[in-house]
Structures are given as structure tokens and as C-alpha cells.
Design goal:
The complex is a heterotrimer of chains A (201), B (209) and C (465). In chain A, 24% of the residues lie in helices and 22% in strands. The two termini of chain B are 19 Å apart. Classes of the chains: A alpha/beta (201), B alpha/beta (209), C alpha/beta (465).
């Protein structure tokens, strides 16, 4: 008996016999025509729509410190490559899931932000964005976005990213609509999401 | 049919008296394409000498247009409202109908024949008419050809919702561009024993008060 | 698709008739489908190039299928090169056995699961139970359905048939974490589920998922979700097994630029779903990552020239949300993991000849499904095609005779006779006594259960000017 692999591949080749391969027409909109100011406004509008907080500042450290104070966040985990000027916290090395569960918040940088969908992309292969686990287990995620990383469309974001990098795309706090289609923000992932737009540079 | 003929003749259209034949949709949609083929052949043959084939049924026209292998046939098939609005460029036919009506947008007029709001344009131009919006006008009445028999209970549940929407409009007539839906809705209304009647769009357009 | 999902279950009309009696179900469904329909329409309306995206989505999927074996082997080599393991399974049995073997080799008695239709399709949870392995669903709706010991009734909102009161009662009954005085507020119910699953996420050693897309050129898997239960399962355990249908392949990373617009807007009616995770082989997250590439009827579907377009489906559920039949009957009447219009064309094809044969007839062909399908699958066309296939194999003799007679009476000659007959006999057949008799005649009684035989309108006089 042939292996499942050989069997499946062989049957696929005879199944699609005579099937023509049309070349997909990509005449959809690829790039946004918005100005930088309009892009940032759109991003804010979309992120706020997801019930996440959006803060514009040229003093990231102060903005983080305000959030920390306001919500009495005491234990904060940070990836080892996070700019030290932003905040102090416990640097993640190999914290276990249970250990991470004792943290109140996480601060990370981000790779790309998509204005039209209010999406933040984390690239876990970068040291300022950290492992997947640290931006998942703590209940509050504070995420710093640089204006230069903001793109208009999903197509532009995909073009900027490398599939080999481990990524998480985040659009607002976790949510469910499983009960009568009524949206509830905050389930298993962080229930609070703060997006800080870093206008310092 | 008589109403359609009358509407077109008033506009000076010459109607070629030819033998009629079914578009074959019932057989196609029920999964009997082979039985439908001779019917479609006959349509093509009977109407070979006409410039246009106009039918007061968006559903039949929609079905005929799906025969991509018969481009000449496809090109000359028009639903009545489409023919009036797009080809003859007329919406006001001088009709008068002093009644309160509601309009059921049939699935096939909307999604297969793609008539858009052409039937409504014609209806709104009728003198003395009062058109009341039907809640969930574009939701299916549940007919679906043999569906109404094969899935009689589901069909009945859909009809029930359609009837209660119709009755909420307090209209005297339900108007539509498809006879099949009208037959279904009409049968339901008759069963309920109310006073609301069904009427084809062509019948309203042919009316002179 | 064994156990509750197989073709041996009752025909659609029978199950639908039962479902229609459940007025609570009909209220829940009407409310939920209306809500999600409106949400979808709003966010789709925002996208000016929606039609171009739909066409591209359709074409990319069909192009991918036309070169499927090359894309699959490319995916395999890339995923493997990145440290992952690729398995192949011809059917549900092989796929289930692979999952169980991985669990046993690692001495695991419980796995946590991300909502996955593919694992529902192969009845993985039931199989694992026979092997002494507990499969714990972590998506809120899947958890509700699992606690109630039911099957999902919708592919996106598996518990769409249940309302908040029913869910509250279930949680009070089944969950130790349900606080005293738990109300029916969706927030409180979601927080109860959070408390219930938290420890599981932090301590489980193995997770099972599906995938929404598998990118061939890079060997990347993608899971789209909302609650964060997916990220938990895809990140925290040591071992991750993803069961992926072979049709989930997309040739290039660039293709995601299309599908990550089409999918969220069509399914949950959001501009983007809260979380999307991507991984290529090993790396950040589980140390051991497996993919099972599953056939289970997909290749035989591919072999059908008329039916293969169904494989382009990205499981968004927009078609069931707009389907007037689904809205009244709910998902259980379809006896399949895949209900609604797409289920009516996928289930019979995946199961093969003679199975789920009433499903292609469970549609009025109203066309609403085709209109919303983000990858432009012409569902009505395939429904009609499958009806024909089923009829030529299994239609009853009576039906064949009736259809043949109908075809004859609808020819030019036949119509003349038929017209005269209707004009002559209409007063008789639409008379009160005849309407009563119709209740007892085959076929006619199906019509007469809900409607009269209408009085003919052929004779209606039109006043000439």
C-alpha cells in the first residue's frame, strides 16, 4: 500500500486533470491615498471603535507612567529589547506561563499598524516586541506605535511583513460575540489594550 | 399575458403572435436538465424572428439568460420592466390605479435577472397609486418551485412570515414581477381568507382607473 | 463525518419539520442572523473595491486548486525546513490516529482545542475519548455546545441556537466557576468561561487547532480568531497539532492581502478580527509543531468539474446568515458540520455518492448566498447540478414520470392543451370541496398544508381603454 502522502498527491494530479489555471487579476486597491495626518486619524478612529485606548504623545515614558498609576499596575513585564527610556519593568527571559499570570501588564513595541482596520502587528522575532506569551497572558497590553510604521491598507501591511517572522495581528482587546451576537470585549487575551502613538521622532 | 400585451401594444410595439413555450426553468432547477433542453430549444426556435423576447416574469428571463451557450437567445431576453425602462426608456405608461399596494421584490428579479428598482420606478409612476413599503421585501416567499413540495414545511414557514409582513402594510394588493411567487403568496392569502389580492405588475401598468 | 454527521441521519425535510416546531429556536435564530447580516452589510459597504477583491479571492483559490499538489509539497518542504513536522491523512480515521499517537507518545491525557471545523468534521473529540484522551474545547460557543453535549449549529457561532438564559442555566449547572447569583449578561457569562479555562491554558501540554490558511511559498499557517483562546492554545503548550484540509492552501503570502480583507468582514462583520496568529514551523511558542494535511473527500470533490468550486470556501458563514431556509431551520437539520447553503453543496460532495442526498434540495435558489459569498462561489448553480446528479441516480419512478409529463405539457403543443384545461377546470380545482380533497392527495397535500390552490388569473379580464 502506498503512503497517504503519495496516494493523496497522485489522486490530486488525476483529479485536476484538464483544469485550467487562470491567472488571478489583482485590480483591487493596493495602496492608500491618504496623507500621513489622515492615516493617523483613521487609525485612531478604528482603534477607539474597538474600545481600545489611543494616546498620542511625544513623551512615551510619561504616557506609560500615567496608565500605570491610573490603574495601579504594579508588576510589568517587558521584552529585553524594549527601549530602556520608555519604562522599567521585569525583563522577560524565560518566564513560565504561570509566572506570567502574576503580571499586571506588558509593554511592547510594534512592527506595523494598519489604519483602515485599526490593526497592530507584533513581530515576535524582534527583541522589542518579545515572545508571543508575554503580550498574551497579562491583562493589560500597552503597545507603542511609530508613525512611520502606519500603513493604510491590509495589502500594504502584508507587503511590509515577512511570513517567516512569527507574527500576531491585534485589532482591539480580545472579544466574543458568541452569546446572541452581543459583543463582549475582553475574554482570554488582554482585556485592556492601550495604543501609544510615539510622536517623539 | 393579456396585460403585458396591452401595455406593449399601447406603446406601439408589434407583438408577433407565435407559439408559446416554457423556458424550462422548473426542470433545470429541479435537476432535470435533459428534460429542459427541448423546451429551451423550442423557445429559441419559436422566437427566432423576433427582435426581443419580453416576458412578465423575471424568473423565466433570468433562467433563459443563463444559457451561455446560446448567446443570441440571451441577448434578446428581457423582463417587461427592464424592456420598458431600458429599451423603450419609459416609466410613465399613463396608468391609473387608485389603490393601496405593497411590492414584493422577488429573489429572481433582484438577484438573477438583476432588475434593480426598475419595477418600483414603473409602479411609482402610476397615477393615484399608494405604494407602501413591505418589511423584508427582498426576503424569499418560500416558493422555490419544487421546493414548495419537497420541503413543504420550511416553505410554509417562509410563506407565513411573508404573509404577516404583507398584512402589516394594510394594502389591498400585493404586486410583484413574478407570477410564480404571486401564485404562492396568492394561495397563502386565499387560505387566510383575508381581502388582500395578488396582482402582477403588468396588470397594474395596464390599468386605467 | 460519522456519528450524528453522517448520511444515515434523517432527511432534511424531516429534521427541518421538527426544528420548525421549536419557537424558541426560531426566535433565537431570526434575531442572531438579522444582527450579523446587518453588521456584515455595514462593513462590506465600506469597501469600495469589494467586487474586485471577491473576484481575486475566487481566482486565487481556483488557481491554487489547479496546481494543488505542487503547492502542498512546497508547503511541506518549507514547514519542515523550519523545524515542523508534516503528516498526511487520507481520511478521518488516519487523521484521528495521528493526533492520538502524538498525544500518547508524549504521555498526554488531555488536549485543549481551538475551534476547528475540520476537527469537528473528523469527529476528533469522540475518537480521542475512545483512546482515553479528553479534548477540551476553549472557544466560548464550542464550550457551550460541549457542556450541553450537543453539536454546533453554525460554523462561526456554534451556539447560535441558544439564548442567554439557556446558557446561564447551563453554566450554573455545569461549571464550578459559576459565581453565586450569575445573571444572563453576556459579559458575566464570558467572564465565567474565562475563569473556567484560565488554569487549563496555563498548564496544558498539548493543543489541537485547525488553520484558516496555509501559505505554500513560506510554509506558514494562519489562525484567525477573536477571544484569545486561539493564541493561548497556539502559544503556551509544548505541542501543537494543526489539522488542515488540503484546500486551505494559498500559493503566496501576498494572497493574504486579499483574504484577510474578505474573511473578517464576511464572517463576524468586523473590519478585522481581534487576533490573527501566524507561524512557520517551529519557533516562538510550542516546541513541537505538527500539521496534518487532510483529504477526507476533498480530492474526490476536486475531481468533479462542476462541483469543485465549492472547495474555494473559506468558511466565513455569510451564506448561512442570509439563507432564508437556514434562518428557519437552524444548523442541526443539515446533519452536518457544514450547514446552510455551503453545507448543502459541500457535505454531499465530501461524503460521496448516496450521502446527504436531501441537502441540495434544501434551498429555494433565492440566490442570497451567492450574492454575499466572499469568494464568489456560485452556490445555486452547484445546488442545481447536485440535484441533477442525485436525480439521475436515485429519483423515484413517480417523480420521473411526473417531470416527464410536465415537460411534455410545457411544450408549445402541450401549453395549448394545458391552457384550455386550466381555464376550463380552474373553477373546479380551486373550489372549496376540491381544496379539501387536495389535503389527501399525494404531492397536492404538501402544497395544501399551507396554501390554497389559487384561483386562476389567466381568465382575469383586462379592461381595454
Amino acid at each position: 500500500m502506498s503512503s497517504a502522502r503519495e496516494d493523496i498527491l497522485r489522486r490530486i494530479d488525476s483529479a485536476k486533470y484538464g483544469m485550467s489555471a487562470p491567472v488571478p487579476i489583482r485590480n483591487y486597491t493596493s495602496t492608500s491615498t491618504l496623507s500621513e495626518v489622515e492615516l493617523l486619524d483613521l487609525l485612531e478612529d478604528r482603534i477607539v471603535d474597538y474600545k481600545a485606548k489611543f494616546i498620542r504623545t511625544s513623551d512615551v515614558a510619561a504616557a506609560i507612567s500615567d496608565i500605570v498609576k491610573e490603574h495601579s499596575l504594579s508588576r510589568i513585564v517587558i521584552p529585553d529589547g524594549l527601549p530602556s527610556a520608555w519604562t522599567t519593568g521585569i525583563t522577560d527571559t524565560t518566564l513560565t506561563s504561570t509566572e506570567l499570570d502574576n503580571f499586571d501588564a506588558v509593554v511592547t513595541a510594534s512592527e506595523v499598524a494598519i489604519a483602515v482596520t485599526g490593526t497592530i502587528v507584533l513581530n515576535h522575532s524582534k527583541s522589542d516586541q518579545g515572545r508571543r506569551a508575554i503580550s498574551l497572558v497579562p491583562d493589560t497590553h500597552i503597545c507603542i506605535v511609530k508613525p512611520s510604521s502606519v500603513v493604510g491598507t491590509v495589502v500594504e501591511a502584508v507587503a511590509r511583513l515577512n511570513p517567516k517572522d512569527h507574527q500576531t495581528w491585534i485589532s482591539g482587546p480580545s472579544a466574543t460575540s458568541d452569546i446572541e451576537l452581543e459583543r463582549v470585549e475582553g475574554v482570554h487575551g488582554p482585556r485592556n489594550l492601550y495604543v501609544i502613538l510615539d510622536l517623539s521622532s | 399575458m393579456a396585460a403585458t400585451q396591452l401595455v406593449l401594444e399601447r406603446l406601439g410595439i408589434e407583438i408577433i403572435a407565435t407559439e408559446q413555450s416554457c423556458c424550462g426553468q422548473m426542470h433545470i432547477n429541479s435537476g432535470y436538465p435533459k428534460l429542459a433542453k427541448p423546451l429551451v430549444d423550442q423557445v429559441e426556435k419559436n422566437f427566432a424572428n423576433c427582435d426581443y423576447i419580453v416576458a412578465p416574469s423575471a424568473s423565466c428571463i433570468g433562467s433563459l439568460r443563463e444559457h451561455e451557450d446560446r448567446p443570441a437567445l440571451v441577448a434578446k431576453c428581457f423582463d417587461l420592466s427592464e424592456f420598458l425602462v431600458d429599451i423603450l426608456k419609459v416609466t410613465d405608461l399613463g396608468a391609473e390605479f387608485k389603490h393601496r399596494v405593497t411590492f414584493h421584490t422577488t429573489c429572481h428579479s433582484l438577484r438573477v435577472a438583476k432588475l434593480g428598482n426598475k419595477p418600483q420606478q414603473l409602479l411609482n409612476a402610476v397615477k393615484g397609486i399608494e405604494v407602501v413599503e413591505l418589511p423584508a421585501a427582498d426576503s424569499c416567499c418560500g416558493f422555490g418551485g419544487t421546493f414548495s413540495v419537497k420541503n413543504s414545511d420550511v416553505s410554509g414557514a417562509m410563506l407565513e412570515d411573508k404573509l404577516s409582513n404583507i398584512s402589516s402594510t394594510h394594502s389591498e394588493f400585493v404586486v410583484s414581477a413574478d407570477n410564480s411567487c404571486l401564485m404562492h403568496i396568492g394561495g397563502g392569502l386565499q387560505r387566510k381568507g383575508g381581502k388582500i389580492e395578488v396582482l402582477h405588475l403588468a396588470e397594474v401598468l395596464a390599468s386605467r382607473g | 463525518m460519522a456519528k450524528g454527521y453522517s448520511g444515515v441521519s434523517l432527511p432534511f425535510p424531516t429534521l427541518a419539520k421538527e426544528a420548525l416546531k421549536d419557537t424558541q429556536l426560531r426566535t433565537n435564530l431570526a434575531r442572531a442572523t438579522t444582527t450579523i447580516r446587518d453588521k456584515r452589510a455595514r462593513v462590506v459597504g465600506e469597501v469600495t473595491d469589494w467586487e474586485e477583491l471577491r473576484q481575486a479571492g475566487h481566482d486565487i483559490k481556483m488557481a491554487s486548486l489547479s496546481n494543488l499538489s505542487a503547492h502542498l509539497t512546497k508547503f511541506e518542504s518549507e514547514f519542515t525546513a523550519a523545524g515542523g513536522t508534516v503528516h498526511w491523512a487520507r481520511n478521518s480515521k488516519e487523521a484521528c490516529e495521528i493526533v492520538a499517537r502524538i498525544a500518547k507518545e508524549n504521555n498526554i491525557q488531555e488536549v485543549i482545542k481551538v475551534k476547528s471545523l475540520t476537527t469537528d468534521e473528523i469527529n476528533l473529540n469522540e475518537y480521542l475519548a475512545t483512546q482515553g484522551i479528553v479534548a477540551k474545547e476553549t472557544d466560548l460557543a464550542e464550550l457551550i455546545v460541549q457542556l450541553a453535549d450537543e453539536h454546533p449549529s453554525h460554523i462561526l457561532v456554534p451556539a447560535i441556537h441558544k439564548n442567554r438564559d439557556q446558557i446561564r442555566d447551563l453554566f450554573v449547572d455545569k461549571l464550578a466557576e459559576a459565581p453565586a447569583g450569575l445573571t444572563n449578561s453576556p459579559r458575566e457569562l464570558a467572564m465565567t468561561a474565562r475563569a473556567h479555562l484560565r488554569k487549563k491554558f496555563l498548564t496544558s501540554r498539548m493543543a489541537v487547532s485547525g488553520a484558516n490558511f496555509a501559505i505554500a511559498e513560506s510554509g506558514t499557517l494562519c489562525v484567525v480568531e477573536s477571544e484569545g483562546n486561539g493564541r493561548m492554545c497556539l502559544t503556551l503548550p509544548e505541542i501543537l497539532v494543526s489539522v488542515v484540509g488540503v484546500e486551505k492552501i494559498l500559493p503566496t503570502w501576498e494572497d493574504l492581502g486579499v483574504f484577510l480583507q474578505l474573511l473578517p468582514r464576511s464572517s463576524t462583520g468586523e473590519r478585522m478580527n481581534p487576533y490573527t496568529s501566524f507561524w512557520t514551523g517551529k519557533g516562538d511558542g510550542p516546541k513541537s509543531r505538527h500539521v496534518i494535511l487532510l483529504d477526507n473527500g476533498r480530492v474526490q470533490t476536486l475531481a468533479d468539474e462542476q462541483g469543485r468550486e465549492a472547495l474555494a470556501c473559506i468558511r466565513c458563514s455569510a451564506c448561512m446568515n442570509v439563507c432564508p431556509v437556514y434562518e428557519r431551520t437552524g444548523g442541526h437539520s443539515y446533519s452536518s458540520v457544514y450547514p446552510g447553503p455551503i453545507g448543502a453543496i459541500i457535505t454531499p460532495q465530501l461524503l460521496g455518492e448516496g450521502e446527504a442526498k436531501t441537502l441540495p434540495f434544501a434551498s429555494t435558489l433565492c440566490g442570497a448566498c451567492y450574492e454575499v459569498c466572499p469568494v464568489k462561489i456560485n452556490i445555486p448553480r452547484i445546488l442545481v447540478y447536485l440535484r441533477g446528479k442525485e436525480n439521475s441516480a436515485n429519483a423515484s419512478l413517480t417523480e420521473k414520470i411526473v417531470m416527464r409529463l410536465a415537460a411534455l405539457s410545457l411544450t408549445s403543443k402541450g401549453l395549448k392543451v394545458l391552457g384550455t384545461a386550466i381555464r376550463t377546470f380552474s373553477p373546479v380545482i380551486s373550489s372549496r370541496p376540491a381544496q379539501k380533497i387536495a389535503h389527501y392527495l399525494p404531492v397536492a397535500k404538501k402544497w395544501s398544508a399551507f396554501r390554497d390552490i389559487p384561483k386562476t388569473r389567466l381568465t382575469r379580464k383586462v379592461r381595454k381603454p
